[in-house]
Amino acid sequence: MNPTLQNASRPDIEKLARRRAGAKMGWYIHAFVYVLVNLGLVALSASRGHTWAVYPLMGWGLGLLIHGAVIWFVAPGGGFYDRLVERERRALHPGERG
Is 8 helix (H, G, I), strand (E, B) or coil? Predict the structure, then answer.
């Protein structure tokens, strides 16, 4: 089990699980809207013989990528976040082993 959750109560774990699931669901909705809107923009752009749709694809795609990175790697409960917290905990209490 995750060391930060060993002493957590069941309601705390439930709250964290719901928050994490909600954040991931938010990303899936974001990705779905990204695909739908950009398919429409690409179709509109191509029908006029232009390639301007690549700019919203790249800009919004970068935002979607950053959103995903935060959700899966940096947010509380993610492995990267847990490692940073543990490193800070060791720095603040150098004599303790977790």
Answer: coil
Q: pTM for the full model? A: 0.70
Instruction: Round to whole Å and give the CA distance between 17 and 27.
Output: 15
pLDDT tens profile 11-39: 877 887 888 888 889 999 999 999 999 99
Torsion of CA 15, 16, 17, 21, to 10 degrees: 100
- Rounded Cα distance between 73 and 57, Å, is 23
Residue 51 structure tokens: 């390639």
Domain-by-domain residue ranges, the chain? 3-92
Does residue 38 contact residue 63 with C-beta atoms inside 8 Å? Answer: no
Cβ partners under 8 Å of residue 44, min gap 6: 53
